[in-house]
Amino acid sequence: MKLPRLQSEIQRRLLVNYRADPDLVARMLPEPFRPQLVHGSAVVGICLIRLGGTRLPGMPYATGLRPTENGAHRISVAWDTPEGERTGVFIPRRDSHSRATVALGGRLYPGWHHRSIFTVTETDTDLRVSFRSTDDEAYVDVHARITDQLTGSALFSDLADASRFFRTGSDGYSPSRRPGIHEGLRLVSPRWHLEPADILHAASSFYDDPHLFPTGTIALDSALAMRHLPVTWQSLPALERKSTFTPV
Fold first, then answer.
1. Most buried in the list 44, 84, 128, 204, measured by CB within 10 Å?
2. 3-state secondary structure of 217
3. Alpha helices of 175-221 — where are they, by DSSP H?
4. Of 5, 156, 173, whose CA–CA distance to 87 is shortest?
5. What is the per-residue DSSP string for 126-141?
6. Sequence-ordered alpha helix ranges (H) in 119-207
7. What pairs with residue 114 in β-bridges?
8. CA-based angle 113:118:123, to the nearest 5?
């Protein structure tokens, strides 16, 4: 039985966003998901998040887990429910440096994680985060610099536009340890503040793989950061996977 809720602090969340060919992304997605399009492009990306004080609701911060570094490759998606269309992200792979997160994810709470080694160098304005999985199947290396305004994005007209998009897409589903089932988590925060960032460098085993994304089917778009925000993670009802998907 999985815990219905957990609390933590987002110490740093870096979102690196790409524009991708929607037909190509649609073929990658299992049912019931389809790409969520913005100006005709699918939105895919990387989430690099450090969480502090993860604990049961009502417990003091000091009783929570030590800070954990986590990474996810993600695809913005839509799907139909009896109540209407929902939007969120499908996460083909989650990675974490925390042995506890890897051991408990998909068991005590939703989110099956792979073990990875993270390297982080941060200042108030520069964010450099990289990881490589111990199974040697995934790597990420991102360097971003906080700026005053969002520029150069073909997906979002301004920071407010980007903020609305990601706030309404805070439900995340990923493959579970149980065949045929997607597990879901919802991110809820009483505060929602994004900072724009310039991408100085971005590399990913997923998005740089020409077998998955041939030349011309994907392009870097923008980066956004969230820092020092309280958050509650809520379990969502599981969804059935009706078609085959092989996690990256």
1. 44
2. coil
3. none
4. 173
5. EEEEEEEETTSS-EEE
6. 159-167
7. 95
8. 130
The position carrying tokens 């933590």 is 8
CA geometry: angle 164, 90, 246, nearest 5 deg = 160
What is the structure's pLDDT at 106?
Answer: 85
Structure tokens at 97: 């440096």
Amino acid 177: pLDDT:
84
Q: What is the pLDDT of residues 197-239, one digit of tens each?
A: 999 999 999 999 999 999 999 999 999 999 999 999 999 999 9
CA distance 39 to 19: 10
Structure tokens at 224: 């956004």
Tens digits of residue pLDDT in 20-67? 999 999 999 999 999 999 999 999 999 999 999 888 788 877 776 789
> Is 0.70 topped by the overall pTM?
yes
Q: Where are the beta strands (DSSP E) in the chain?
A: 5-20, 34-35, 37-38, 41-55, 68-81, 84-96, 113-122, 126-133, 139-146, 171-175, 181-188, 195-204, 218-226, 229-240
